[in-house]
Design brief:
alpha+beta; 6-stranded mixed β-sheet; 6 strands; DUF6970
Length: about 150
């Protein structure tokens, strides 16, 4: 039985050794400009970091409070963040609130009332679950509207 296993392994190995496999990655697009067959498309330099939402919320067309205009101006005075800053308006616990996305990584996002008073940090931080002051924000928020997002 052992002799048969060795013979089978040698047969498989010798059969595979005769095949040549060549792997290449093109760095320029094909002359025709289109890819067909087994060609691989050329690398692209387009930005693929910014996420694209499948659902596009409705835009908020109401006047922005002065404190929010100041926050937007402060963001625009800084270099572009990655991910970009987005400000959303929701209804939460019977009131209108503004959600400002976190600038990066383990930082908190913020939820403000219409007067600009910080209510809570619903997400972000080391755990990604915010400060715990509005743990139900994701479930209870409604009437989503885009107020502003960094156009840069």
């Amino acid at each position: 039985m052992r002799l048969f296993s060795i013979a089978a392994a040698l047969l498989i190995t010798s059969a595979c050794a005769h095949q040549q496999v060549s792997v290449t990655t093109p760095t320029t697009p094909p002359p025709s400009g289109s890819v067909s067959g087994t060609d691989t498309p050329a690398p692209t330099s387009t930005n693929t970091v910014d996420p694209v939402n499948r659902y596009v919320p409705e835009s908020d067309t109401t006047a922005r409070p002065q404190w929010l205009k100041a926050r937007i101006a402060a963001v625009l005075a800084e270099r572009k963040r990655n991910p970009i800053t987005r400000i959303m308006r929701y209804q939460y616990n019977g009131q209108t609130v503004y959600y400002i996305s976190a600038p990066c990584c383990d930082q908190y996002s913020e939820v403000f009332d219409t007067r600009g008073k910080l209510i809570c940090h619903p997400d972000g931080g080391i755990t990604g679950k915010g400060d715990g002051q509005c743990a139900d924000f994701e479930k209870r928020k409604s009437n989503e509207k885009v107020v502003w997002q960094d156009p840069r």
